[in-house]
């Protein structure tokens, strides 16, 4: 009874794998998968917040253009004053109003500091650009990740098809063996071999189904889809450009790769940092104004228990003389950082060129491998048909038949994987250029 139940479940899994997902199926191309990931992947949402933070930093930096305004108020107890002779021989106690208070408003506006504020705003803008380029790089990584999972599902779908087709052939062959056995032409051992071959295929199919469920679940999370959605790959295996040439992809990477753009922007950041450091050599010119109200009036004798108010306005000029010595060293540091940024850009470009070269060679290799494995598949199919004909005419034993089937199965699996590998290497080439 238990054996029959297991057999029934195995048949259901084999022929109706969709029942192990929800009834919702979604056909998707690789581009659609990538676009959905850009909209919903949690990693990109975190990266996008860095842009908002950078924009807010620009707004904060712009506030330096506004005047600084301070207001103060104080209440205090004023003790009696003591007047002492200059030879400390006599002293006189002078009564004072004991309650005192002070109120003041002061405003200061920076007029000139060598363009410090504007340069700081420009630096904050460059940092925003770096945040945007980091987001673009993360988009490339996320797109390639989900496309890789998508292609793994595609590969499993093709492998399932290969296993199913070979299982049908094995079942037909088992029927013939059973007829031979009933006629006394073969032993029970031959029937067992045929049944074991089908069991091995069932095991392979079951493993593929479970692997697909795992990949499908992970991809649903990355794309923001309901967890039970079954993704059906429908990406075309043809029309992938292969004859443009490596120079095209190298130039494309130089123009588009976000890491190269970030390296160039870092040089601009180093330049702007040097400009900001040099503003320390400039004097600070500021305008100011304020109003003060104070009680009591202690500038006359006797002291008046009254409020004294007054206002002032003017300009101030200040200069830190020590910056004549300190700024030179800081500028030297900034120039060293600029040289480092330039060398870093050369390194990034070299790494990008090597990545593009490797990706292009592997893409061409994948195309050639697919052609070779297609020829091998056709040879294995021909060998299978010849061996099958010999077996049906009792000119070959079951072991030869199983060997031919295994060669056919393996060659078909290899070709199915090679087709998906062409797609994988194509998208890897696009990623290496930063244009996925």
TrEMBL record:
InterPro entries xref list: OMP_efflux, TolC-like
Coiled-coil segments: 116-143, 370-419
An annotated Gene Ontology molecular function: porin activity
Any Pfam family: OEP
Gene3D superfamilies associated with the record: Outer membrane efflux proteins (OEP)
Protein name per its UniProtKB record: Outer membrane protein
Main location: membrane
């Amino acid at each position: 009874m238990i054996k029959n139940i297991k057999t029934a479940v195995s048949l259901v899994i084999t022929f109706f794998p969709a029942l192990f997902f929800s009834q919702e199926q979604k056909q998707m191309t690789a581009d659609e998968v990538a676009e959905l990931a850009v909209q919903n992947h949690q990693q990109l949402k975190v990266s996008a917040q860095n842009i908002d933070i950078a924009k807010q930093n620009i707004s904060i930096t712009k506030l330096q253009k506004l005047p600084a305004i301070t207001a103060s108020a104080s209440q205090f107890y004023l003790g009696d004053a003591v007047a002492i002779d200059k030879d400390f021989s006599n002293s006189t106690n002078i009564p004072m109003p004991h309650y005192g208070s002070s109120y003041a408003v002061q405003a200061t506006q920076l007029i000139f500091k060598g363009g410090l504020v504007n340069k700081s705003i420009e630096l904050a803008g460059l940092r925003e650009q770096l945040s945007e380029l980091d987001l673009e790089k993360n988009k490339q990584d996320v797109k390639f990740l989900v496309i890789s999972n998508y292609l793994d599902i595609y590969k499993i779908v093709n492998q399932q098809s290969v296993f199913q087709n070979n299982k049908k052939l094995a079942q037909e062959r088992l029927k013939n063996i059973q007829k031979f056995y009933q006629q006394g032409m073969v032993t029970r051992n031959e029937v067992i071999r045929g049944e074991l071959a089908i069991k091995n295929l069932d095991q392979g199919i079951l493993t593929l189904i479970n692997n697909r469920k795992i990949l499908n679940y992970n991809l649903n999370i990355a794309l923001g889809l309901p967890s039970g959605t079954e993704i059906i790959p429908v990406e075309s295996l043809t029309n992938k450009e292969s004859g443009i040439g490596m120079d095209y992809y190298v130039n494309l990477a130089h123009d588009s790769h976000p890491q190269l753009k970030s390296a160039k922007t870092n040089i601009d950041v180093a330049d702007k940092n040097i400009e900001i450091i040099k503003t320390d050599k400039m004097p600070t010119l500021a305008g100011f104004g304020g109003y003060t109200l104070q009680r009591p009036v202690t500038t006359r004798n006797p002291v008046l228990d009254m409020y004294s108010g007054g206002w002032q306005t003017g300009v101030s000029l200040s200069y830190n003389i020590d910056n004549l010595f300190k700024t030179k060293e800081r500028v030297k540091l900034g120039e060293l950082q600029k040289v480092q940024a330039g060398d870093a850009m050369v390194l990034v470009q070299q790494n990008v060129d090597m990545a593009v070269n490797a990706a292009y060679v592997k893409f061409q290799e994948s195309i050639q491998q697919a052609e070779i494995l297609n020829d091998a598949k056709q040879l294995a199919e021909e060998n299978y048909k010849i061996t099958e004909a010999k077996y049906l005419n009792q000119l070959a034993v079951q072991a030869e038949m199983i060997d031919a089937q295994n060669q056919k199965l393996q060659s078909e699996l290899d070709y199915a994987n090679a087709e998906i590998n062409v797609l994988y290497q194509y998208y890897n080439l696009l990623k290496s250029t930063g244009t996925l």
